[in-house]
Amino acid sequence: MDNLTNLTTYTASQARADLYTLIKKTAKNQKSYEIKLRGSNPVILISKAELESWLETQDILNSPEEMKAIREGLSTNKTISHEDFLKELKLDEN
């Protein structure tokens, strides 16, 4: 996903003329677009997956318990391999 500060901007008329293409690119998580309507605040066209990701991040950042766990995890500097991680979760194929 591209940075929200580097959006391609369309007027509402331009977006309407190219709506199918904008939706298709957005659905593939390739682009996000700012659409301006005269006299209104701009809107952003993003995929549902991108919105869900932003909302999940916001939820984590607003949770003192989750942020504490993240900080504690970062402070340990412990790393494990992907294979060992799957074993810990009992998701390995063996």
Keywords:
mainly alpha, YefM-like fold, 2 domains, 5 helices
Question: Can you describe this structure?
Answer:
- This protein is mostly helical.
- The chain folds into two domains: 8-47, YefM-like domain (YefM-like fold), CATH 3.40.1620; 49-88, no CATH class.
- The chain contains five helices and three strands, in the order βααββααα.
- It has helices at 12-17, 19-27, 48-61, 64-76, 82-88; strands spanning 8-11, 33-36, 43-45.
- A three-stranded mixed beta sheet has the order 1-2-3.
- The protein is elongated.
- The protein starts with 7 loop residues before the first strand and ends in a 6-residue tail after the last helix.
- The model has no long low-confidence stretch (mean pLDDT 88).
Number of helical segments? 5
Q: Strand-residue fraction? A: 5-15%
The overall strand count is 3
Structural class: mainly alpha
Strand order of the largest sheet: 1-2-3
Name the poorly predicted regions.
none
Largest sheet: 3 strands, mixed
What is the name of the CATH topology of the largest domain? YefM-like fold
Radius of gyration: 20 Å
Amino- and carboxy-terminal Cα gap: 36 Å
